[in-house]
UniProtKB/TrEMBL annotation:
Keyword Metal-binding among UniProt keywords: yes
Organism of this sequence: Aliidiomarina halalkaliphila
Descriptive protein name: Cupin domain-containing protein
Cofactors named for this entry: Fe(2+)
Residue ranges annotated for the JmjC domain, each copy included: 98-225
Keywords in alphabetical order: Iron, Metal-binding
Database matches in SMART domains: JmjC (SM00558)
InterPro entries in the record: JmjC_dom, NO66-like
Gene Ontology MF terms in the entry: 2-oxoglutarate-dependent dioxygenase activity; metal ion binding
Length: 399
């Protein structure tokens, strides 16, 4: 399947209308969102992925009124019942190039908003039960049929039929439809939904990354500790201490924490967060890092600009490590590439090289790099990524 094979049907789906009327607002069913949709992988290939170490997968089985959940990697699937189960594999886009190509149909939203492509195979009556996701998701129907029910956003009691399976109580659906191959539903965060398989089915779920305040604060703390910044420490205000000493009220007891001191701590945090440049760096680094970090493959010796022509001539293929995240951003007037948290300043040549590297789904012929290595910044970008083990020269496929 070529990249051009995964294109949203513009007769059925208008991105402008969708963003205006539905994105993060209301669920939507899109019939034949992709015409003549072809599955980027088969159930057997999905099962093979679930048997590999480092791949996040799980089996959800609903049998004899009981829910069970097992996590991969799996050695076999021999003991499964005939129906009532689903195999779910996360980040399939990081392992299957055609699955990566599927995500490109959703570039009416920024790349850095996309989390991953989760693929599931379900037998008849298979599913994970009614639940709520805290992120927006598109679900494309591949082979087979599934009935999808989506309810209004509401407070629903949580149920735990298994320690690893969070469900909600039943809800009244506002959408209740059977999806055929090529159909798609959009479900905003917070809307309860449930899928029930009618005929053995493949489903493709495009989930979107939405960092919480806690994640942003955690990333900020990590950045501050790494760069030895935000080191201003708390100082007492003498006037507050004198007031407490003179006061005879109960709130002057030595163990009492007054509201005024809490306000001082809050002001310390607010002052730290006023540094726009640091916040820009923190956000860019956070969004450029895959939550499932790629496994780097470092070169035997550091790659220098002068060695690049030799390596390109001797190593005909350039591979991209699985799961590399990349973005560009302007900071203080300079365009940068941020790759897995590493910063590289770009000029016109380096930016053109970035585009080539970003668009890679697996590998390219090394000789194609030569036309993009005219400037020192372009060469520095490639050297940096090679030395971080995020891109790898190889003599042959699978070497």
């Amino acid at each position: 399947m070529s990249d051009s094979g995964y294109v949203l049907n513009h007769y059925a789906f208008d991105p402008v209308v969708f963003l205006r009327d539905h994105w993060q607002q209301r669920p939507l069913l899109i019939r034949q969102a992709m015409i003549d949709f072809q599955d980027p992988l088969q159930p057997e290939e999905l099962a093979g992925l679930a048997m590999e170490s480092g791949v996040d997968s799980r089996l959800v089985v609903h049998h004899d009124q009981r829910w069970d959940v097992a996590h991969g990697p799996f050695e076999h699937f021999d003991a499964l019942p005939e129906d009532g189960w689903s195999l779910l594999v996360q980040a399939v886009n990081e392992h299957v190039p055609d699955a990566q190509a599927l995500l490109r149909a959703f570039r009416f939203l920024p790349d850095w908003r996309i989390d991953d492509l989760m693929v599931s195979y379900s037998t008849a009556h298979g599913g994970v039960g009614p639940h709520v996701d805290q992120y927006d998701v598109f679900i494309i129907q591949g082979q087979g049929q599934r009935r999808w029910q989506i309810g209004e956003k509401q407070d629903l009691a949580t149920r735990l039929p298994h320690p690893d399976l969070k469900q909600t109580e039943p809800f009244t659906p506002i959408i209740d439809e059977i999806l055929e191959p090529g159909d798609m539903i959009y479900i905003p965060a917070g809307f309860p939904h449930a899928g029930d398989t009618l005929a053995p089915a493949m489903n493709y779920s495009i989930g979107f990354r939405a960092p919480s305040q806690a994640e942003l604060l955690s990333a900020s703390a990590d950045y501050a500790l790494e760069h030895d910044t935000w080191q201003t420490r708390f100082r007492d205000q003498v006037s507050q201490l004198l007031d407490a000493e003179r006061s005879q009220l109960t709130d002057a007891e030595p163990w009492y924490l007054p509201e005024a001191v809490v306000n001082d701590f809050q002001q310390m945090l607010q002052q730290a967060l006023t540094d726009k440049t640091q916040i820009h760096r923190i956000v860019a680094e956070l969004l450029s890092k895959n939550p499932r970090p790629p496994l780097p493959e470092w070169p035997e010796s550091p790659v220098t600009e002068s060695r690049l022509p030799y390596l390109i001539s001797q190593q005909p293929l350039l591979f991209k490590a699985v799961g590399v995240r990349m973005l560009t951003t302007h900071l203080e007037g300079q365009l940068y590439a941020v790759v897995q948290g590493h910063w590289y300043s770009l000029d016109e040549d380096a930016e053109a090289l970035f585009v080539v590297l970003n668009e890679m789904t697996d590998c390219i012929e090394s000789m194609h790099l030569n036309e993009y290595l005219q400037s020192s910044r372009a060469r520095q970008l490639l050297c940096g990524l090679l030395n971080e083990g995020l891109f790898i020269f190889s003599a042959e496929a699978g070497d």
